[in-house]
Structure formats: C-alpha cells, structure tokens
C-alpha cells in the first residue's frame, strides 16, 4: 500500500487479552484506519490469545506448561471480561447486549480491521515463552517482531498501551 | 453511477468503517449518497472523507432529522 508521507500513525500495544480491552483496541484501530491513519497492532503476552487460529481452547505448544497455559487461556472466543467475568458467561452476555444496541461485536471489529488494512504484528518474546508459532496464528499476522522493530516502526506514531 | 449507504443504525466506529469500505470499492468519479444521524457521524464522516481527498458535494438535512451527504470519490 502506498501511503502519503504525512499520514498520521497509531500503534496499539495489545497486552491484555481481556474481552473488553480487546474491543477497545479494535474499536480504536478500525476507527483510526477508517479515518485515514496508518495503524499497527502489536500483540504481546495475553493479547496473543486473540490472534490464535483456533478460536476455542487448544493445547498449543510443546511443553506441558505451555500446553496447559494455552489450553486454559483459549482463543478469541474465550477472552474473559476484565471485571465481573462470571466464569466466562459475561463476554457472551456482553456480546448479546452489543448486538441488541447495534454496536459492532468483537469478531465484526476484527473483520473490519482486517478489511481496512490494519497491520498486525506479534511479539517474538511472548510467542517463545508461550510456545506459539506463527503457523498457530491467523494469516493476517503480517510479521513476528521484537521490541526494537516495533519501536522503530512506531517512531513517529502515537503509542497506546491496552 | 450513484451508490447509497444508510449508516443511521450504525454506531462508532462502524459509521466511518462502512463509508470507508464502500468508497474503497467504488471507481474514481463515482458518487456516494450517505444517510447519517446528526452528532458524531455528521461531525466526523464529512471531515474524514475530505481528509482522504474525497469531495463532499452536498450535506442536506432531511425531514426526519437525519442528514444526506453526497460524496464524490
């Protein structure tokens, strides 16, 4: 994609794998991309769960610990609400409320971000700890990068940490 | 060719997103008519379209307190 040199840039660090925080991240990302900003989402630690190809629970990884962590955390469909999660019932109730009020759901926001060309990168270090490979993640993950690459790419961008 | 998009039932950020994606699928020179609500969409959709180099040809209120925007890609 050819971008004008003066295009505003936003980079969002998606650290939290919480449902509501991921809704916020994808809302800002798709809104920013739709209003002509260049957007990068950098997923690290719990945020990586939102990128897993398998959106449910899967024992990803090689070691027992990694498999246990990945299974317990699950994917996009298992993200917990940061408050009042009620054993996973709340994100489903929240999604029903979002639909009722014509607010885009998390899968719709993710789809919009992809359609708008939001750049998605994953943290190399967190992937190594959790034994998650790029092949375990959705195809929209453009690259696996370290913090130096992320900071270089974001030098003239607003950085938001969620 | 004139296209039409009703975003009166949409909320942020899908108001901008739907307009942006619709314009992306159109040919240069084609027109898009957007029906939108006053407030946030009316303040920001025309502005973001102009920032992206699209022409806002008209912006008229409708009888039912909505607005009709005509954009040229």
Secondary structure layout plus pairing:
The complex is a heterodimer of chains A (162) and B (73).
Chain A: E1 9-14, H1 19-34, E2 38-43, H2 64-73, H3 89-100, H4 106-115, E3 119-123, H5 124-130, E4 141-145, H6 147-153, E5 158-161
Chain B: E1 2-6, H1 14-24, E2 31-36, H2 40-51, E3 55-61, E4 67-72
Parallel strand pairs in B: 1-2
Antiparallel strand pairs in B: 2-4, 3-4
Helix pairs in contact in B: 1-2
- Total helical segments of chain B: 2
Residue stretches of chain B low in confidence (pLDDT < 50, at least 5 long) are none
Poorly predicted spans of chain A: none
Total separate domains of chain B = 1
CATH-defined superfamily of chain A: DsrEFH-like
CATH class group of chain A: Alpha Beta
Report the sheet with the most strands of chain B, covering strand number, pairing sense and barrel closure.
Answer: 4 strands, mixed
Give the C-alpha Rg of chain A.
Answer: 16 Å
CATH domain fold name of chain B: Translation Initiation Factor IF3
CATH architecture field of chain A? 3-Layer(aba) Sandwich
What does the oligomeric state look like here?
Answer: heterodimer
Averaged pLDDT of chain B, please? 95
Instruction: Give the CATH level 1 class of chain B.
Output: Alpha Beta
Task: Name the CATH architecture of chain B.
Answer: 2-Layer Sandwich
What share of residues of chain A is helical?
25-40%
**Biggest interface pair, counts:** A-B, 17 and 15 residues
């Amino acid at each position: 994609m050819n971008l004008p040199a003066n295009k505003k840039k936003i980079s969002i660090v998606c650290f939290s794998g919480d449902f509501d925080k991921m809704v916020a991240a994808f809302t800002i990302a798709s809104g920013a991309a739709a209003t002509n900003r260049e957007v990068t989402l950098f997923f690290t630690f719990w945020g990586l769960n939102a990128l897993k190809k398998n959106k449910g629970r899967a024992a990803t990884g090689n070691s027992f610990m990694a498999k246990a962590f990945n299974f317990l955390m699950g994917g996009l469909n298992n993200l917990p609400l940061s408050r009042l999660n009620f054993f996973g019932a709340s994100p489903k109730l929240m999604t029903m409320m979002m639909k009722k009020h014509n607010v885009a759901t998390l899968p719709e926001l993710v789809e919009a971000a992809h359609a708008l060309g939001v750049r998605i990168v994953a943290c190399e270090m967190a992937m190594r700890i959790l034994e998650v490979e790029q092949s375990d993640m959705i195809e929209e993950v453009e690259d696996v990068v370290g913090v130096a690459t992320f900071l270089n790419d974001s030098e003239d961008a607003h950085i938001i940490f969620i | 060719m004139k296209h039409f998009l009703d975003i009166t039932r949409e909320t942020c950020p899908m108001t901008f997103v739907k307009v942006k994606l619709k314009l992306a699928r159109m040919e240069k020179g084609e027109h898009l008519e957007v029906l939108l609500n006053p407030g946030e969409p009316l303040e920001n959709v025309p502005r973001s379209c102009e920032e992206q180099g699209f022409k806002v040809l008209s912006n008229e209120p409708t009888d039912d307190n909505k607005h009709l925007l005509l954009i040229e890609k």
